[in-house]
Amino acid sequence: MTVLEKAVRNLADALEALESKLDGRLDDLAANDDVISAAKRQASAARYQTENASREVAAAISDIKSLLDTDEAKKGGTS
């Protein structure tokens, strides 16, 4: 084998190794994209649930205030 043939063979081997590393890295990135997408979906669902809970808590607070106001009115009216 001539020096040029060896150099071409070494280059081919190096390119194969690089391609293999790139494939592995692309697989890792694809997996990361899946994880990121899942995290975004979970964050969106959590935000939706938090908004609903916030509305329910606000309604409960409003109901409690209304009950307290009614109770105060009854106490004030009977005195």
What does the model show?
This is DUF4164 family protein. The protein has 79 residues and is an all-alpha fold. It has one domain. The protein is built from 1 helix and no strands. It has one helix at 3-78. The longest helix has 76 residues, at 3-78. The mean pLDDT is 91.
Provide a brief overview of the structure.
The protein has 79 residues and is mainly α. The chain is built from one helix and no strands. The protein is rod-shaped, with a radius of gyration of 34 Å.
Measured as a percent range, the helix fraction is over 70%
- How many strands, which pairing sense, and closed or not: the largest β-sheet? none
How far the N terminus sits from the C terminus, by CA atoms, comes to: 113 Å
Give the SSE order as H and E letters.
Answer: H
What share of residues are in beta strands?
under 5%
Number of helices: 1
Give the uncertain stretches in residue-range form. none
Overall tally of domains:
1
Question: What's the number of extended β-strand segments?
Answer: 0
Oligomer: single chain
Q: What structural class is derived from the secondary structure elements?
A: mainly alpha
Task: Note the overall shape.
Answer: rod-shaped
* Radius of gyration based on Cα positions: 34 Å
Mean pLDDT: 91
Ordered list of secondary-structure elements with their pairings:
Blueprint: H1 3-78
Organism: Hyphococcus lacteus
Protein name: DUF4164 family protein
Labels describing this entry:
79 residues, mainly alpha, 1 helix
